[in-house]
Amino acid sequence: MSTESIEASGVVTSANVTSDVSVVTTTHTDQRTGGPAMGQRILDIRNFSVDYGWGEGAVRAVNNVDLHLNRSTVLGIAGESGSGKSTLVYGFTRLLRAPGVIAGGEALFNLQSEDGTDIIVDLVTASEKELRKVRWSNISVVLQSALSALNPVLRVGTQFEQVLKTHRRDMSKADRRARTVELLALVGLNEDRLRRYPHELSGGQRQRVMIALALALDPQLVIMDEPTTALDVVTQREIISKLFELRSRFGFAMIFITHDLSLLVELADEIVVMYAGEIVERASAQALYDTPRHPYTLGLLNSFPPMHGVRTELTGIPGSPPDLAQLPTGCNFNPRCPYAMERCLKESPSLADLGEDGRSVACWLHSGDAGVVVPVELRRTGKGKREPAPMPVKRDVS
Amino acid sequence: MSEVTDVSEVIAGTVQLQARHLTRHFTTRIPGRGFNGKHVVRAVDDVSLDLVAGEVVAVVGESGSGKSVLARMLARIVRPTSGDLILRGSTIPRKAKRSLAYASQVQLVLQDPFASMNPVHKMRHNLVRPLVIHGAKREDVQALAEAALTRVSLEPPSRFLDRYPHELSGGQLQRVSIARALCIEPRVLLADEPISMLDVSVRLGVLNLLRGLCDNDDLAILYITHDIASARYIADEVIVMYAGQVVEHSRGTILVDEPTHPYTQLLIASVPNPDDPTSVGPPTAEQAQIVIAEKGCRFNPRCPFVMDRCRVEEPPEFIVGENHTSRCWLHADKPQFEVEVALPRRRGEGEITKT
Ligand SMILES: Nc1ncnc2c1ncn2[C@@H]1O[C@H](COP(=O)(O)OP(=O)(O)OP(=O)(O)O)[C@@H](O)[C@H]1O
Ligand SMILES: Nc1ncnc2c1ncn2[C@@H]1O[C@H](COP(=O)(O)OP(=O)(O)OP(=O)(O)O)[C@@H](O)[C@H]1O
Ligand code: SF4
Ligand SMILES: [Mg+2]
Ligand SMILES: [Mg+2]
How far is the CA of A7 from the centre of ligand 4 (A)? Predict the structure, then answer.
């Protein structure tokens, strides 16, 4: 097996994260106990923006994102490479490194104490010290980058040991060991793997170790950034079903990032689609799949050849992915959009509620203006199997 | 040595490149076991296939199944342990070095367009170099390079010739590397995972391009992928590899619609299917553990149908349908399939012969 070629994601572990960078969660600062009732809400992100660089050369990688998540639900984030999916997550979990800077917004996280009272913390303004205090216990992140993967010079067992030692001071050595074995069993690994070094495991096994690590401290929210993209489909499927089995057992909420929209449709309760740093559509997974509203979503759905039915030529999305440093005026998608109208070239549409079950879309076609005819493939209401609905062809105009 | 150099017209349906019983084993040392600790990796084992003008043959398999080693043998970059290559009717002498004449007819496109392009040179240089190596006249190269870019829909070509690799998107760069392979007018294009590093939104464009080259220019294409849906999308013939062997092989995409080998079935069941999420159960943990058996069927440790025989005896390829074979004991009642050497064939006939 060519293990080198298998890219793994990294869990942020105390083993490879220095004390001043890191994940997540706070207790005390900015607590607004009894503030806006969040109830089932676990996360509420508002007007959130992230830039790379400062001043003139700054590039806005995440722009004015609003996002919320309820307890025990799965939110999928889809979008092509460079659309800002990772940056968004790094941003609100405060894992961003220079030149990345949070340019505005808030990220309210509801810690909810054991008796059920809301304890709301703004992750954006929480100090590093406070972020560290409850790090891991509430949010854990499995990162996309292979570089920050498991610490290569430590045995798997040692990495679990370190995490538990740091965050569960009251645990005895024997308890820690027992907990580690239990965690490995959860992801279907034998305890003999504990003595192995990461490079001695297959890509799929490493991925499972990282999921086990992410669950070590019973987080309320687990964030997975492309956890299975580098794996074979069979391994991917196995890991995902394991993950979902664990989720229904422990009830954590999950944010799942991937470019594979068809995978998300199966996994997520709700999906947001990002384009050029902005959310362009948000809907329940099935609704998004059956009746996409944004031309970009339709294009993404048409980019996956189907496994069934007659073979027809698919067009995918015309043109090239956007360059954040040179976004067009008006709607970011207009250079690639076959439906672009006058207005799209001048004004930028914002995410607006469609009045259909919490669906929203950022597209002038759906603004309800008189005279705008919504193309049939973007207004279908029918349920059931979606035939690949072709988009009109647009020549590369860039 | 008479390697093929004739420039006769290519007719759709004529065989361009054939592989017969191609095999490549690697011997690696097992650390800590001294000189006797040797381990043989059967990277590719007895693979035969025909690449035909105007057709796409897709090879599907998981990581480590031997796809790249196969492509490299077909490009003659890796030397086979045994087996033959037959280019347009002539068997290539096994010991001979890869010649320019061979390279001019069989071109390989790699997975990572960024790594396969020289980053310090503009597109012009990257395109012109192979032309010059293959003997194009100085005064013609500009026109040839532009024509190649036009063929891959990078228009106007002048806008791309003076750009550096980092100034192009992944999809554009992969088009350039296909253009570079095409500019010397090969008969055979070997594409090793050409879309796996590209963004989802631009993958279809590259697939459609490959299909178009086949249909319009009668190129013979080998398309290597781990994505069985994309194989179904463009292929005329599909081969599924597992642990170096062909486990299932069919004309058309019948093996995707009606898989007969347990590995192909597992592979297909694992593909997300939003139309019917409940249609298939996820594989069990045993199935997803990649264990390759040394004895018997290589898939037996993961196979839900494993029988005693599977653990001791390696299955041959059985004929499970018209132009459809499967290497699995479940089909032992069917006739065995053997590859005939250098069988000339026409489109749609005699690809698979009974013995
Ligand atoms: N360190 C950095 N400096 C400057 N720009 C950056 C940096 N990191 C990311 N970017 C830019 O920010 C944008 C968003 O990147 P991000 O990694 O969030 O995308 P993504 O949606 O996660 O993509 P992928 O699917 O490839 O992981 C991209 O255009 C990228 O080029
Ligand atoms: N030079 C080499 N020395 C030893 N073993 C090798 C060598 N090249 C390849 N192998 C082994 O041969 C097998 C097949 O490798 P190959 O690269 O062809 O797989 P692949 O199907 O292309 O996988 P991927 O999808 O990861 O690209 C693997 O087990 C690999 O480790
Ligand atoms: S030969 Fe046996 S083990 Fe191999 S795939 Fe067929 S049934 Fe499974
Ligand atoms: Mg990312
Ligand atoms: Mg390969």
Answer: 13
Extents of the domains making up chain A:
3-268, 296-378
Q: Where does the pLDDT of residue A17 fall: very low under 50, low under 70, confident under 90, or very high at 90 and above?
A: very low
* Residue B202 contacts residue B37 (beta carbons within 8 Å): no
* Contact criterion met (CB below 8 Å) for B58 and B223: yes
Q: How confident is the model at residue B284 (pLDDT cuts 50, 70, 90)?
A: low
Contacts of B44 (CB under 8 A, 6+ apart): B22, B23, B24, B66, B69, B70, B73, B80, B244
Which is nearest to B267 in space by CA: B290, B251, B244? B290
Are B4 and B93 in a shared domain? yes
CATH number of the structural domain spanning residue B6: 3.40.50.300
**Number of Cβ within a 10 Å radius of residue B26:** 13
Q: What spatial distance separates the first Cα and last Cα of chain A, rounded to whole Å?
A: 42
Handedness of CA A32, A38, A40, A46 (dihedral sign): negative
CB B39 near ligand 2, within 6 Å: no
Calpha distance B74→B87 (Å, rounded): 10
Q: Output DSSP code: residue B336.
A: B
Nearest to A60 by CA among A90, A83, A93: A83
The complex's ipTM works out to 0.80
The half-sphere exposure of B269 on its side-chain side, counting CA atoms within 13 A, is 20
Instruction: Give tens-digit pLDDT for B77-105.
Output: 999 999 999 999 899 988 788 788 899 99
Judge contact between A273 and A296, C-beta under 8 A. yes
Distance from CA of B178 to the nearest CA of A (A): 17
What residue has token string 């984030």? A77
Nearest CA to ligand 2 atom 29: A1
Specify the CATH number for A3-268; select among 3.40.50.300, 3.40.50.1260, 3.30.450.20, 3.40.50.450.
Answer: 3.40.50.300
- Verify whether ligand 1 is closer than 6 Å to residue A101 (CB atom): no
Q: How many domains does chain B have?
A: 3
pTM: 0.84
Interface test with B, best of A307, A337, A383, A386 (most B CBs within 10 A): A307
Same domain, B57 and B13: yes
What DSSP element (H or E) covers B249?
strand B245-251
Chain-centroid distance of CA B54 in Å reads: 15
Do B100 and B178 sit in the same domain of this protein?
no
Contact B265 CB / ligand 3 (< 6 Å): no
Query: Amino acid identity of A173?
Result: K
Question: How far does the CA of residue A278 sit from the closest CA of chain B (Å)?
Answer: 17
Instruction: Provide the 8-state DSSP code for B215.
Output: H
If one counts every other C-beta atom within 10 angstroms of the C-beta of residue A308, the result is 13
Q: Are strands A270-275 and A74-78 parallel, antiparallel or unpaired?
A: parallel
Helices (H), ranges, B218-271: 228-234, 254-257, 262-270
CA B174 – CA B197 distance, rounded (Å): 9
Which residue in this structure is represented by tokens 């990220």? A107
Omega into A99 within 30° of 0, i.e. cis?
A: yes
Query: Taken in order B336, B337, B341, B345, is the CA torsion positive or negative?
Result: positive
Q: Within this chain, do residues B95 and B175 fall inside the same structural domain, yes or no?
A: no
Q: Could you list the residue range(s) of the whole structural domain that residue B146 is in?
A: 114-185
State how far the Cα of B141 lies from the Cα of B183, in Å rounded to an integer: 9
pLDDT of residue A88: 95
